[in-house]
Amino acid sequence: MDLPAPHKRKRSASPPPPPASRSTAPIDLSLLEALEKSQQNAIETLDLKTLKKLALSFERRLNANTAARLKYPDNPDKFADSELELHDELQKLKILAGAPELYPDLVSLGTVNSITGLLNHDNTDIAIDAVTLLQDLTDADVVEDNDESAQVLVDALIENNAVELLVQNLARLNDSDPDESAAIYNTLSTIENLIEVKPSVSELVCEKTKLLKWLQARIKIREFDSNKQYASEILAILLQNSVANQKRFGQMNGVDTLLQAVAMYKSKDPKMGDEEEMVENFFDSLCCLLMPLENKERFVKAEGVELMIIIMNQKKFCYGSAIRALDFAMTNYPPACERFIDVMGLKTAFPAFMGKIPVSKKNKKRRYKEELEERLVSLIASLFGGILRGSRRERLLSKFVENEYEKIDRLMELYMRYSDRVKAETEQINQLELEDLEIDEEEKYNRKLDSGLYTLQLIAVILGHLWTSEHSGMRARIELLLKQQKLSRKDVKDILQEYHDNIGDLDGPEEKERAQSKISRFISALS
Question: What is the pTM of this model?
Answer without folding.
Answer: 0.87
